[in-house]
Structure formats: C-alpha cells, structure tokens
Amino acid sequence: MLSRGRHSVLANEPVGPYRLLRVERGRAEPGIPGQFFMLEAPGRVLPRPMSLCLAPPGELDFLFEPVGRGTRALAALEAGDELAILGPLGNGFRLDVDRPLLVGGGIGMAPLPYLSEKLGGPPAVLGFRTAHHAEAAALLPGSEVAVEPGLVTELLPAGHDVLACGPERMLQAVGALFPGAQLAWEAPMACGYGACYGCAVDLDGTYKRLCVEGPVLEAAACS
Amino acid sequence: MLSRGRHSVLANEPVGPYRLLRVERGRAEPGIPGQFFMLEAPGRVLPRPMSLCLAPPGELDFLFEPVGRGTRALAALEAGDELAILGPLGNGFRLDVDRPLLVGGGIGMAPLPYLSEKLGGPPAVLGFRTAHHAEAAALLPGSEVAVEPGLVTELLPAGHDVLACGPERMLQAVGALFPGAQLAWEAPMACGYGACYGCAVDLDGTYKRLCVEGPVLEAAACS
Amino acid sequence: MLLNASGCLDALATPEVARAFDAFVTKTVTPLPREGNDPTRIAETDHGLLNSIGLQNPGRERFLAVVLPQLRGLGLPIWVSVGGFSADEYAETCSRLSDVTIELNLSCPNVDEAPEAASEIVAACRAETPLPLYAKLSPALPDIADVARAAQAAGADGLSLVNTIRGLALDDETLRPRLARGAGGYSGPALKPIALAAVYVCYRATGLPIVGMGGVSTGRDALELIAAGASAVAVGTALFTDPGAPHRVRADLYKAAAALGFEDPLAARGIAHAPASQLALSKRTTNKTPAYTAK
Amino acid sequence: MLLNASGCLDALATPEVARAFDAFVTKTVTPLPREGNDPTRIAETDHGLLNSIGLQNPGRERFLAVVLPQLRGLGLPIWVSVGGFSADEYAETCSRLSDVTIELNLSCPNVDEAPEAASEIVAACRAETPLPLYAKLSPALPDIADVARAAQAAGADGLSLVNTIRGLALDDETLRPRLARGAGGYSGPALKPIALAAVYVCYRATGLPIVGMGGVSTGRDALELIAAGASAVAVGTALFTDPGAPHRVRADLYKAAAALGFEDPLAARGIAHAPASQLALSKRTTNKTPAYTAK
Ligand SMILES: Cc1cc2nc3c(=O)[nH]c(=O)nc-3n(C[C@H](O)[C@H](O)[C@H](O)COP(=O)(O)OP(=O)(O)OC[C@H]3O[C@@H](n4cnc5c(N)ncnc54)[C@H](O)[C@@H]3O)c2cc1C
Ligand SMILES: Cc1cc2nc3c(=O)[nH]c(=O)nc-3n(C[C@H](O)[C@H](O)[C@H](O)COP(=O)(O)OP(=O)(O)OC[C@H]3O[C@@H](n4cnc5c(N)ncnc54)[C@H](O)[C@@H]3O)c2cc1C
Ligand SMILES: Cc1cc2nc3c(=O)[nH]c(=O)nc-3n(C[C@H](O)[C@H](O)[C@H](O)COP(=O)(O)O)c2cc1C
Ligand SMILES: Cc1cc2nc3c(=O)[nH]c(=O)nc-3n(C[C@H](O)[C@H](O)[C@H](O)COP(=O)(O)O)c2cc1C
Ligand code: FES
Ligand code: FES
Predict the structure, then answer these.
(1) Which of C172, C178, C149, C157 is nearest to C40 (CA)?
(2) φ, ψ at D144 (rounded to 5°)
(3) pTM for the whole thing?
(4) Fewer C-beta neighbours within 10 Å, C or N terminus of chain C?
(5) Residues D234, D226: contact at Cβ < 8 Å?
(6) Closest residue to A198, CB basis, from C9, C48, C53
(7) Which CATH class for the B100-222 domain?
(8) Beta-carbon count within 10 A of C285 CB
(9) If you take atom 7 of ligand 3, which residue's CA is the nearest one?
C-alpha cells in the first residue's frame, strides 16, 4: 500500500558538502534500511528518490548531495516549509546476517546510519573524494574512513557479510570481492513504485525495474 | 529607445481590493501620464502591462487589481523583492488641454493620480462597483465618486476636455458624449513595444497595434 | 470517467492505485515480447518528462495467457492498448481479445518502425473485432482532425488524444542526449495546450467519444479537456509524482465543475464549442475584451 | 549567429533591438495584404504562449515597395519570411526578391488554407531564385526528418526549426477558447525539447545549415540547439519578455560555451551527436549512469 503525505521541514543542515534534510515523520513509516522515499522537489515535474538516512523519534532524515536541479531545490527548503513524501518504497537490506560490514562510497553512505542502528552498530568503512566530503562520516561514528586516492576496497576485511551503497564502480568492485554482498544501486526513477518502467536495469539479460526488484540486490544476481 | 531594468519593491499595499505596488525608480523615467510599463510577473511567461499611477521622488507606483495569474503573482511581491520593468511605453495623454476633466472607472483610475499631478489637480469623477473599491479614490483627493448603480457618465459636466480610463463600456459611453475625449484603452499585450501584433484593435476598419497607436486615443478616432 | 494513461501504471504492482480509476488501461501490447530501449530511459525537463521506454512488454501470448487473467481479478473494466508494426499485427491481436475495450496505439514515438496509415490499421482491426475500438493519435500530425475523420470512417468508436510528442534533452556537462536513445516522448504539463487543441478539433471533426490526456494533474485540467470535447480523461505523468492523483483529480474535477454551475463534470462536455452565452457576457469578461472589437 | 524569430520583432518600431541581432528576419509576407485574425490573439499558458496573429502583413507589393527599402536602412542582413497558399504564390514572391536570404514559412498554424507539400513549394521557389532558401518546418509532422530530406532534395539550402505547434487555452470562467480563433500556435519554454529533437534529427538527416528556435531564453538554450545541430539560433517569445534578450543570450552563450571548453559557440555544433568522449566518462557522470548497463 503506497503512502504519501505532506511533511514539515524541521531543519536542513549542511554536512560537509551534503545536506541533512530533517522532516517531521507524521504518519509515515520509516521502513527497512535501504528502502527509499520519493521526495517532492519544489518546482520540478518529478520527485527525487532518497534513501532514509536516520529515523530519530518523530523524524525522517535524508542525507543528499545537491548535484542537479532537483537536489538544489531540496537544498533550498527551509524549516517550516512543507513537501510531499511517498514511501517507504522498494526492497531494503536483509538484516538476518551474521557478521555485517557496512561499506559506503560518497553520498552512498546515506542509508548506512539507519542501517547501522538496526544492526546494532556493526563495523563500517566509508570512502570519500575529499576530506570535506568525509565530514559526513560523523553521521556514522566509529566508521573507518578512506579519502581518495585511498579506496574503501583496500580496507575491507574478509569474512564479513557486506552491505554496501555507493557509486557504480565501487559496487562492482565490492561485488567482485564479496559475491554474497548486498548492494544498493541507483537508476534514474520517475515514479519509484513500478509504474513507469523508467528505472530499467539489466538483470540476467532482461530489463527489470530497479524500484521493484531493488534497489538492494545480491551481488551474485548482478553479474 | 527601450529601457528595462530590475527594480526593488519598496512596498505592496492594499488599497481597497486593489494593490499599490511601490518600486524603486532607479534609472527609469516615469514618462507621460497614460503611458504604461511591462512588469515582470514572477513565474509567468509574459510580463503584464500597467499604467504608472504615481511618481513620487525616487519611486514608480502602480495600482492594480489582482484578477488572474499574473496580477496575483504581482500581489504576492514583498518589500525587498526585485522585478524587471520595461518602459515607459506607448502614447500617453496629451496634456495641452484647456479645461481638463479626469474620468475613471474602477481600476481604470490607475493612471489618473499621476495625470492629475501633471495637470495641477483638475476636477475628477470616479466610478466604482462597490464602496470597498471606492476606497481607491483616496489616491485622487477631491474627486467626485459614483458607486454602482450610480454611473460616472451621469456626473459629467459639459464643456470639458475629458481624459478617461476605465472599462470598455464606460469609454464608449464617454466617447459618445465627448467626441474630443482622450480615452486610454486596454488589450491583451505580450510585448508592449510593437513586436508581437497581439494587441490588435480595430481602428478605422484595420487592425492596429494598441501599444504603438495607443493606449490613449481620441474618441473620434475610435468610432 | 477517469482512466490511467497507457504505460503509466502497473495495475498488478499497485492494484489500489488502479482501483481508484474507472477502468484500467494496459501498457501497449505488441505481438512479440519487447525488452524496451536501453537505459537511460527517462529525463525530466523544466516543464515535462521525456521517456524512451520503447514499449517494454511481455508480448501478446504471455499477455493473453498470464497478465490479462490477473488483470481481470482487479474487477475493473480493462482497456488493452494494442501495438504492432503492420495492420495485420494489430488486427491479429484484436481478434484474440474479448470483453475489453481496445485502444490502438497508432503513435508511439519510441520505436523505429513506422506503422501503416492509421486508417488502414483501424479498418483491419474493425474487420476482426466487434469490441469498442479507440484510435490513439499523436499530436505530431499536420492535421489531426483529418486523421481522426479517417479513423472514424474506418470504424473507430472513439479517439484517445494525445500520445507524447518527440522531444530531446541534453546533459548539462556533456551536451549529449540524456536518453540513451537520443530523443524520447514528451509528456506532462507542457503538453496540456497541445492536448486541448487536439481534443477540440477532433471533437468538432468527428463527434466521437474521446479520452483526453496530456499533462492532466488537476481537476481543472480534466474539466478543460472535457469542455474541449473529451468524454473521459486519462492521467499519465502526474501519476509518477503522486499515486493519489486519481482520487485528487476526481474530487477536484467535481468541485471545479460545480463551481462553474455544472451538475456533473460531463455536463460540461464540449462547452468550449458553445456560442457565447449570457454568462460569458458578465461584467468581468467584458472588462477585458479588447477595445474596439465592436465598431 | 543570432536572429530574431519571424513575427516576433518589428525592426522599424525598435531598430535598436533589431541591431542587436546578426540579421533581421521579417514577419511572413504573403502575396495579398492580410488583416490578421480577430482579437483576442494572444493567451499565456503556464509554460508557453499561444498566438493567433494570422500573418497580419501589408502584402507583397507594399512590402517590396515600402517596407523592404526601409529595412535596408538598418544596415543588417535581411531574411524575408515568405508565405503563400500555393507553390506558385511562394515562387512568385521569391522571384521578386534580391540581396536577402529567404525563409519559406511552410508551417503557420494560424491560417486555414493548407499549403502544398513542402518539397513542391521549395522546388518551385528554387526554380525562381538563386538566393539562399531556408525551409521553415512545423514540428507537427510524423517524421520531420523525412520532410527535411525532401526539402533538401528539392533544393533548400537550410532549415529553420521549428515553427509553433497548435495549442489551445480555455477561459477560467467561461471554459471557452481564450483566443477568438480557438486554437493558436504554441511557443516559448514548453517548446524547447520539441525544437531540440527536430534540430537533432534533421541535422542527422540532412547536414544542412539550421536556424534553431523554440523557447530560447538563455545562452544555455542557444548552446543546446547548436549542440543538437543548429548553425544559428533565433529568439522569439523571449523577446516579448525582454527586448534585451539578444544581448543577454549572446553574452551567456559565449560564457556557457567557454565553461564547457569550446573556444567559440559554433565549435559545439553537432556535439550532441559525437560518440561518448573521455570527458563524458568523468567520475561525476559515471556516478549516475544506471546500474548494470554493462553486463
Ligand atoms: C533508490 C535511490 C536512492 C537514492 N538515495 C539517495 C540519497 O540518499 N542521497 C542522495 O544524495 N542521492 C540519492 N539518490 C540519487 C538521487 O536521487 C539523485 O542524485 C537525484 O535524483 C538527482 O536529481 P537532480 O535533479 O539533482 O539531478 P538531475 O537534474 O537529475 O541531474 C543533474 C545533474 O546531476 C548529475 N547527477 C544526477 N544524479 C547524480 C548522482 N547520483 N550523482 C552525481 N551526479 C548526479 C547529472 O549528471 C546531471 O548533470 C538515490 C537514487 C536512488 C535511485
Ligand atoms: C496599457 C495597459 C495598461 C494597464 N494598466 C493597468 C493598471 O494600471 N492596473 C491594472 O490593474 N490593470 C491594468 N491593465 C490591465 C492588466 O494588464 C491586466 O489586468 C492583467 O494583464 C491581467 O493579467 P492576469 O494574468 O492577472 O490575468 P489573466 O491571466 O490574463 O486573466 C485571468 C482572468 O482575469 C480576467 N481579466 C484579465 N484582464 C482583466 C481586466 N483588465 N479586468 C478584469 N478582468 C480581467 C480574465 O477574464 C481572466 O479570467 C492595463 C492593461 C493595458 C493594456
Ligand atoms: C513512461 C511513459 C510510458 C508510456 N507508455 C505508453 C504506451 O506504452 N502506450 C501508449 O499508448 N502511450 C504510452 N505513453 C503515453 C501516455 O499514455 C500519454 O499518452 C502521454 O504520456 C500524455 O499524457 P500525460 O501528459 O498525462 O503523461 C507513455 C507515457 C509515459 C510518460
Ligand atoms: C506572436 C508570434 C508571431 C509569429 N509569427 C510568425 C510568422 O509570421 N512567421 C513565421 O514563420 N513564424 C512566426 N512565429 C513563430 C516564430 O517565428 C517561432 O518559430 C516560434 O515562436 C518558436 O520560437 P519561440 O519559442 O522562441 O517563440 C510567430 C510566433 C509568435 C509567438
Ligand atoms: S521508477 Fe518507475 S518503474 Fe521504477
Ligand atoms: S503588445 Fe505586442 S505589438 Fe502590442
């Protein structure tokens, strides 16, 4: 059952080059880590998909990078503004893992704080382009941080159940190292709920909808 | 030479059901009474034509009625906002008249305060739909006011050089009574400076551009 | 009557959204299965959406054997959007259908093969089925009323207006097309005046029932299509923003119609073609009619 | 090269605006004088403009005798937009012109009479004049590239893309058309993706010089049309908002081109058709390419 409502912005705070958009939770469910929400981007035709980053009581918090028209519109929201939010959507991470290790690249760390909370604070490795970007690691206390030219893949201990989100190349590298890893992917999305067939990804040789089959997929299913 | 610039809003005040939009004059010329300006209507594709209502030192003031999308966008402007203004445009009133009498109907009174100032405060007759609308008469102190079902045309003394602005029917009635009257007309305008041929009016059997030939025309030329 | 626009809703993924409509329109079904185009398939523009899905669908046989029976379970009237690359292909699919309304997609901008003339396809389908046949046309026609008349003469029972029109968007940095396919179909708010014009002229030309669509996101949008001549309205792109759109558009449509004095939205059908009424001569309107129109 | 769009500027009323362009394009000239359509002739929509001016112009004879000599006084290259209702009419006007570029308006949505096929008109004009001939096409064609190829084969030296497309807007209260004529030509921001697609496919199909237009209001818009294949850009509706548009668009065009590493805006011509460059594989772009496209 799809749930969409209007939510008040509580705060919209800089976190390094990113923004943490905190909205009133209202009647929305936070869902499972790795699930996402479609956020109204004021003035734009389509909403934008965002993972839930944190779920403090009464709040839904999203960490995002202003990269284009939609995310810049989100960055301009101020406390007291309202926006429509649809979700939670898609399939999140499976939480029944024995030795979880969280791996994030850049803004791909967005779903990890909420995931970490649900998993009781497992070890985490984060990679960033610059030290400024790496300030976001504060949202995941205790995480190990690599800053380019360092790569997260150089810091991954063996014998873990990897749960990862980040740029495509990072996910491919992680998937190659850990065939059982759960990887959260991205694709341009118009609807987020299976209506448009816009988010096609090639799975086993046919185009599937990432918003329906994912965004979290087993690494083995993707090669 | 067309002149267009960005101007700061000084105030946007209610006057009965109308708004008086006061903007910083900057380098714009106020022009001749009856001339008009094209005002950027935020969020709309086209600007909106408005007569200059008052020209206190350092200001350009416009009186307008919020009737549609564009004028509602203008009504939402706040002090400190900026908008682009093009003008003055078109042909204003001839001021070389012996016994001027100003006649205004509803929001058609907009150009009269500035006109009155330039003519040294001649007699004026204003007609309004309701007493609430008639509050705008305060902008033209000393004017005689008719409120419906009263009609301005019932209050017009003979022997005057009439300068009038108002709804089409009023102008037609005034023109019939005073063939020498100067009448300020309206037409939908896209550009205001002769570029689009959108503001066509039938003058002597051919379509002419009101923004080029008018908006002020001699009554005799219009029948 | 409110429908989803073809290709803009998966009733099996979100049956509750489908049930908010009066009937469900399927994504276009082609004779053979289609994988659709390579991603990127969607790109937002300032005033609309470009898509190049490319008619991804399981093909006729699987549709008939698996999908359609599942759709029947919704308990809604079903409209099947039929596509193909020759009149015969369309006609064969039509011959295999029963107990549905058929919408012939004569106008997808996202496939390379050009179908035959609309009227030939309609005639071939008419020969194969007694089911209600709607011809869905693109606005990219020099004279859409002409094509609508030809479709009517060939036996169409109604028209669906409009499909997307070809558009392109370039990447901010690379200046190359944002869609992998290059151009795509343009839908959403920017399309509304184009859709209104198509409905207006085709209503005048044919008097047929018309499903109006193109940029509908409010009840007012729906009312305008009805006023232009639509007997039903479909919602497409607006569903992506808000799966609650059918409820909202319907409620607002009733309100907007009532506010203008219509007992029922459909009482406004074709009102845009009515001669100037007394109402239209109210003071407010007179105020803004251009000077001198009456000499 | 920056031009005004035909019908969107009166160079004699505001010569300083015309001089900000590299050439002046006249409003379409027809053989006989035309009064144009009855008002109301313009209506703004949320994302564009509808007009039904109806080719108001003084007619060929007066244009040649009075207007054109005055325009020569501007000291600008002159493009004459030629209209008509048969190939002969177009051809005769062309035969009477010299020392101008000719733009054949094959696509006005605001007159009732349908002109003959574009290629016939181009061929007839080609036979009558050695002057540069641009064919101006509407985007309301099932396959604009096809028509562009036919125009090229018939002797067109270039293309002007695009004219307006038919649109309609209804009055808030009466639900009747806001334009007296009913439908009108839709221009402005909403048209931009449609114009880009037309330029893109016609550049590919013909390689001809192209004047790109449709919704240009920024330098970035102009750059995108050039990237899609335009060799010149025209500004129409944006002039109504801002007669300073030519200066602003030109300055921003140079800046936008430079910011992406092009020495001159025209160095970006057709770049949208280039194969993925190294630049396009930079990290920023890779981040957002869809997952799994490479199996
Ligand atoms: C399931 C899912 C969850 C997501 N969760 C998050 C999240 O929690 N936080 C977050 O910041 N983003 C997240 N994203 C990505 C986010 O949705 C996009 O960044 C956003 O839609 C871009 O919109 P825009 O209008 O700003 O950019 P667009 O206008 O779409 O693009 C403008 C420019 O930005 C560039 N761009 C677009 N997307 C990206 C990208 N992802 N990275 C870098 N450059 C890009 C494009 O190249 C383009 O030049 C998620 C995506 C999906 C599918
Ligand atoms: C030369 C000139 C000078 C003008 N000076 C002034 C002025 O000083 N003050 C001022 O308020 N207006 C003035 N106007 C009229 C003003 O330009 C219009 O009211 C305005 O453009 C309407 O824009 P809109 O977007 O609000 O309405 P639109 O969206 O264009 O129309 C919306 C609705 O408003 C109604 N409407 C439109 N125009 C009028 C009108 N004039 N009266 C009543 N209803 C209307 C329409 O019927 C429509 O239903 C002038 C017009 C001209 C040509
Ligand atoms: C993502 C997407 C997919 C579409 N798929 C189809 C389709 O399969 N068949 C069809 O006839 N129309 C298809 N259309 C066109 C819509 O049915 C509709 O005609 C068009 O989008 C205009 O309506 P809108 O502006 O409300 O979206 C599609 C449109 C979109 C946006
Ligand atoms: C008011 C108006 C009048 C126009 N008159 C003509 C014309 O006479 N001849 C012509 O070929 N195009 C005419 N056009 C079309 C424009 O030249 C241009 O092709 C179209 O408006 C798209 O560009 P734009 O979006 O920048 O306005 C006219 C457009 C407008 C808005
Ligand atoms: S985003 Fe629409 S189907 Fe996945
Ligand atoms: S408003 Fe454009 S010509 Fe008068």
Answers:
(1) C178
(2) -65, -30
(3) 0.95
(4) C
(5) no
(6) C53
(7) alpha beta
(8) 16
(9) C7
